[in-house]
Amino acid sequence: MVFVATRDGDDSLTVGLRADDASRLMEAVAFASGPYAGKQVPTGQDAMAFSRGVVAALASLKSDIDTRIAGLLFELTAIAPEAAAQIEPRFGKEVAEMVAGIRQLMRLHEGTMPPPEQGKARSAAAGQFETLRKMTLAMATDMRVVLVRLTSRLTTLRYFAESKLENEMTLRYARETFDLYAPLANRLGIWQLKWELEDLSFRFSEPASYKRIAKMLEEKRVEREQFVEASIVRLKSELAAAGIRAEVYGRPKHIFSIWNKMRGKAIDFSRLHDVRAFRVIVDDVKACYAVLSIVHNIWTPIPEEFDDYIARPKSNGYQSLHTVVEADDGRTLEVQIRTQEMHRFAEYGVAAHWRYKEGAANALDESYDQKIAWLRQLLAWKSEVAGGVVGQEDSERQWVEQLKAAAINDRIYVLTPQGRLIELPAGATPIDFAYHLHSDIGHRCRGAKVNGAMAPLNTRLQNGQTIEIVTAKGEAAAAGTAGPSRDWLADGYTASPRTRAKIRAWFNAIEQAEILAHGRVLLEKTLQREGKTAVNLDDLAQKLGFAKLDDLLLAVGNDRLSLRLVEQALHADEPGRQAAPDDAVLPRQSRASSVTRGAKAGVLVLGTEGLLTQMASCCKPAPPDPIVGFITRGKGISIHRASCKNLSQMLLRAPERMVQTTWGELGGDTVYPVDVFVLAQDRQGLLRDISDIFLREKINVIGVSTRSSKGQAFMSFTGEISSTAQLQKAMKVIGEVKGVVEVKRT
């Protein structure tokens, strides 16, 4: 690898770069020196010193040349716009796009950062910060923009520490870092940034605790690191002598991590054993236990601090050996031992360290986790290949392209006029935004402003836009007549299933109200005609078999209940009143002769005549099902389907009681009860749709049982059929109903 000679102080900027890239970076430094001269960034730091600090931090992450140049120049947009206009001609479109992305993120963070709150307001702010973290990753079409933003915040905190500043501004920056930037670095697995961001933020937000922990450590960080490094060297030597191939790396606990653990576990500093820790990564499980034996031979183990998560994995699948040992001078070390596969699972799988550190408040989102894992793998891969010589340029180019393409773009993040962040699915429109705020706002939505300008309601929203909804006002809103348009259900107007469900629910409610009103008018006319206007309507509904009056009105309004049946019910108690004719009966009432009400079953017992037969209730046979008879004690012959499980059990105990049976000449009006089970995605109108099919197929439903659980509907129907062909036709149509998952005869 060829490096360019640079001035003293510039080596930290160009480390790891090829000669031509180092020359480009120094050209950018020279270009920025003029506009930055004598200027300051908003924190008060010298602009050139700040920009060089950002580049140095990026260099420590082994970032590529374009990322370093963007980190150097992005402040030009605010300090010297005329110079910023020269970025693309001089350094390329890619650098210019990154600079624009960095500035956009900074502006959004400034406008959306929640104030420090307590209680419920603090909980709401935590949700806003989580949305802000997701937005940061989603908006960065090039993930290198996030790296620059993290290193710029680190540079600012370093400046505060070097200047020994402690004021309201340093406290605000520390809180923002804890809530937004440190979790982002943790989520992306950029540990060196995370640790320093947390320690510096802790220094300004809790100065007394910081100083107390620092004093309790009784040794400088360099000394702690030297102790850990010496321990690693000793262990590596022992492992090599034993012929065990392993990766060993470690770090001392940082001050914030120590304080956080003491607070979380409510333990004193003297009982904290993992102030210094390292990991050992081996090839297989057998090697894990071999390493454990060597560690316990080198140092003295503390038995109560040993955990075997390989033999007994954690509930999230995490596996590793954890042990705490004591060195000769009394200092303790925590050692974690795991295989490569266990390590990958812990870092990139469902046991990901970032979720553990951020707490259980973050609900599991598998697709989001997978994207975070991919980003972390890309960043880790860059660190691994950075030291290579052969093919380094190609590897770096491939890394840059994959990192640019790794945007988390299946969600978008927009803002209310008050600066509140709203998370929506990609492709969302102002209608989705309105319904997300509140169903009533969605129903009354009449227009939308996007970044202050009126826009069509089917406009596809973009990250970072500010959306304002124009709602119906005046008489329409007061009268409750304002509502959504049916056009909104067409493709292109909404992207969220939740939005479409709310729109459909509104129209369903309107339709139901119209049916209720129509049913009431018809019922009142019938009562007037029959001279029964004083009758109690709730009692009438109960007499007709309805649980409540609205159910009766819906049945009348839908023409599912004949008004002649209502007339019959009104005069049922009058002596000598003639019954209503057949066409006045409820469609669900059977007009045929049912075997459940004493009709002949049409079953022949071979070799005999005149025997009492009854249809088995367990399997409910119907022609032309293959059937078998079973002689019962005192109840004649029970007729079962040949496939009935109960029949099989009875024949095992008493095979001699079986008789051969067959269907005889069937009466044209004889019907047989059967049970049908339906599993479906629950929705409004599902029961009505299925009942209508039974009605059309002339299957009388004599029993219904339904229940809903976790969005699924479990329905059992008992219907009367003349043949199984009739049932099969109905089941086929029911299987095509929207949302139906399974339909079967039981």
Please tell me about this protein's structure.
With 746 residues, this protein is α+β, with helices and mostly antiparallel strands. Helices cover 49% and strands 16% of the residues. It contains 30 helices and 21 strands. Strands 1, 2, 3, 4, 5 and 6 form a six-stranded mixed β-sheet that branches. Strands 12, 18, 19, 20 and 21 form a five-stranded mixed β-sheet that branches. A five-stranded mixed β-sheet has the order 13-17-15-16-14, covered by helices on one side. Helix 24 (497-530) packs across helix 27. The longest helix has 34 residues, at 497-530. It is extended, with a radius of gyration of 38 Å. The model is unreliable at 1-8, 118-124, 348-364, 380-392, 403-408, 475-480 and 578-592 (pLDDT under 50).
